[in-house]
Specification:
- The complex is a heterodimer of chains A (140) and B (460).
- With 140 residues, chain A is an alpha/beta fold.
- In chain A, strands 2-1-3-4 form a four-stranded parallel sheet, with helices on both faces.
- In chain A, α3 crosses α4.
- Chain B folds into two domains: 69 residues, Alpha-Beta Plaits, CATH 3.30.70; 293 residues, TIM Barrel.
- Chain B is built from 15 helices and 16 strands.
- In chain B, α4 packs across α13.
- The termini of chain B are far apart.
- The chains are: A alpha/beta (140), B alpha/beta (460).
- At the A-B interface, α2, α3 and α4 of A face β4 of B.
């Protein structure tokens, strides 16, 4: 894969309601990238806690994505809205300690084009990297 | 009365958090800051002990919650929700269901029989082993209780060939030779895994477990290494390579050797027995439509033990495969018809996922059975089969501590043993040997359906 984020450790939290076959769909990527990519399914993106995002960075992730359902399509009505607030809060926290806020990003799909988790992940991997290796990781 | 066979159990905690059936979603926002928060009222202190496992990003809220729903009901602003966990629904597959996997986890962690609560909501029949009901007519007799009661219920079975009649010489002396027989206290042996993460630790867990329980674990000839040699009295060596490569010392320490069917297994059996006559030789056959005839032919030639294996879903080979219980019944009855059933031991394996399957397969004619995947599940396997595709195991089974693994296996086997005792006690049977082939003490859905509906629609 022509990955633009090569060398970066990517952690992806995602709402499982997005892709029923997520467990099978993400296997090819897991095989290709090994420990460089970690997927954490959530029953709803609203289940995310800023602690999840911070722990992911602490345990060696360079980029942390939260993939949520499109607005208005949340199974629990407002889970994705709450997720947005929490991602904002976590970004503010990491900025306070000198990390780039862009290391945490919320991705929302569009209801018109539902995609599988591996397609979304591949798109994210193909994007130009806005951040480098995390100082948390480089300092060991 | 001999001492009861007892398996020591202990609470053996999980290394990873369990994937639970339901999950808590605590919204947090909109909190009214009540003076008496429902989270503080939790009798299990789930919220106070909350932590996050950063290997899996799983919240301890879910694994510690006992589903009492007190917090969900009492939060005035309805901020706490519980929903079905999609990760739980995604566990395993159509055969190794989330209910089976989580039941095995519970048994391996605690060593206790899983109790589902008051009443059973059904379904009352299904495919495979679920199309079979055992006769529990003696369930009301508390003295038959094998776990706590006064009567001794034995789960011991023999592996080997049996003599049908004692031959006497002219002076009345016994001239017939008794073939070697190996006794196991539980009708279970540990088989090779259809798939597993790499490394020796899983196999070592099986071996420690087999030794502690007094049973056997099947190990490939190619997998015999110095660590395995220590366990040879509890190893069944599976000859998957050149038999000539097996060192003589293995024959003196091992008690059972398994050979694949194909070529001339009886000649190979004789060759092994000429080196060590005390050795029991087991022949491994893949279950299929021709198994009944093949089993009879092998027993007629002197086979001692036949290990009949189905795939991990309990299906035999072939285009229209039968489930293991159907073919096992057929093999057993065929051998009974031919008058040779009691001469040899039949071990069945493949698709054994629960304790009840153990009793049901014995009723269908197996003397004992071999299990594989449940042992891996005891060590927290999620039956995701990522290892089969070369992807890292999500619960790091390759690095499992063999002692921890063996304790989990012992717990699982203790729970299965207790359940077997329950079934035997409820059937009024006092030993597992007597359960074999007791098809009259069971009902089969297909038979009942045929008996009830076969005549319907027929005129005259």
């Amino acid at each position: 894969m022509d990955q633009k984020t090569a060398g970066l450790n990517i952690t992806i939290f995602f709402c499982q309601q997005l892709d029923i076959d997520q467990d099978k769909n993400r296997r090819t990527l897991e095989k290709e990238l090994g420990s460089q990519i970690r997927f954490f399914p959530l029953p709803c993106s609203g289940r995310i806690d800023p602690l999840h995002l911070l722990r992911a960075l602490e345990s060696g992730a360079d980029m942390v994505y939260l993939i949520a359902c499109p607005e208005g399509a949340c199974r629990y009505r407002e889970g994705n809205l709450r997720a947005r607030k929490r991602v904002g809060y976590a970004q503010k926290l990491i900025e306070e300690i000198g990390l780039e806020g862009a290391r945490i990003e919320l991705i929302t799909g569009t209801a018109a084009t539902p995609a599988t988790i591996d397609t979304i992940a591949r798109e994210l991997l193909m994007r130009d990297a806005t951040v480098g290796i995390s100082p948390v990781r480089s300092k060991g | 009365m001999p001492p009861k066979y007892h398996i020591e159990t202990s609470q053996v905690p999980n290394r990873f958090q369990k994937i639970t059936r339901s999950g808590i979603i605590a919204w947090e926002e909109g909190c009214l800051k009540c003076t008496r928060c429902v989270k503080k009222d939790c009798v299990y202190q789930v919220y106070e002990k909350r932590n996050l496992d950063d290997r899996q990003m799983l919240d301890s809220l879910d694994s510690a919650c006992m589903d009492c729903f007190r917090c969900v009901q009492n939060c005035p602003n309805r901020l706490i929700h519980k929903g079905l966990n999609p990760s739980y629904k995604a566990l395993g597959d159509h055969y190794w269901t989330p209910e089976i996997i989580s039941g095995l986890w519970f048994q391996a962690e605690s060593g206790r029989i899983p109790v589902s609560g008051a009443g059973y909501g059904g379904p009352f029949s299904g495919p495979g082993f679920d199309a079979m009901w055992t006769d529990m007519s003696e369930i009301v007799r508390p003295t038959r209780d094998g776990i706590h009661g006064r009567e001794y219920i034995s789960t011991t079975v023999d592996i080997g060939r049996k003599v049908m009649a004692i031959g006497l010489g002219p002076g009345g002396e016994i001239i017939s030779q008794a073939p070697p027989l190996v006794e196991i206290p539980l009708p279970v042996i540990f088989d090779m895994l259809p798939w597993s993460p790499p490394g020796d630790n899983i196999q070592l867990s099986f071996l420690y477990g087999a030794r502690a329980l007094g049973t056997f674990a099947v190990v490939r000839q190619s997998g015999i290494n110095p660590a395995v040699r220590e366990f040879l009295p509890h190893v069944i060596i599976y000859v998957d390579g050149n038999p000539g490569d097996l060192k003589e010392e293995l024959f003196s320490s091992a008690r059972i050797i398994e050979i694949p069917d194909g070529g001339d297994p009886i000649a190979l059996q004789e060759r092994f027995k000429s080196i060590n006559p005390a050795l029991v030789v087991m022949i491994r056959l893949r279950l299929g439509p021709k198994t009944p005839e093949r089993a009879f032919a092998l027993i007629a030639q002197g086979a001692e033990v036949l290990h009949l294996v189905a795939d991990e879903y309990g299906l035999e080979e072939g285009s229209d495969p039968l489930f293991i219980k159907e073919r096992m019944k057929e093999v057993h009855l065929h051998l009974v018809d031919k008058g040779v059933r009691d001469q040899a031991t039949l071990i069945g394996g493949g698709g054994i996922a629960m304790a009840e399957h153990m009793a049901k397969l014995i009723i269908c004619g197996a003397d004992a059975l071999s299990i594989d995947i449940p042992l891996l599940v005891a060590m927290e396997c999620r039956v995701c089969r990522r290892c089969k595709e070369g992807i890292a195991c999500p619960v790091e089974l390759d690095g499992v501590d063999p002692l921890w693994g063996s304790l989990r296996i012992a717990n699982l086997m203790a729970a299965w043993h207790s359940q077997l005792l329950e079934i035997l006690g409820a059937m009024g049977i006092r030993e597992a040997r007597r359960l074999r082939g007791e098809m009259g003490r069971a009902m089969f859905f297909e038979d009942l359906e045929r008996e009830i509906f076969a005549t319907m629609g027929k005129r005259g």
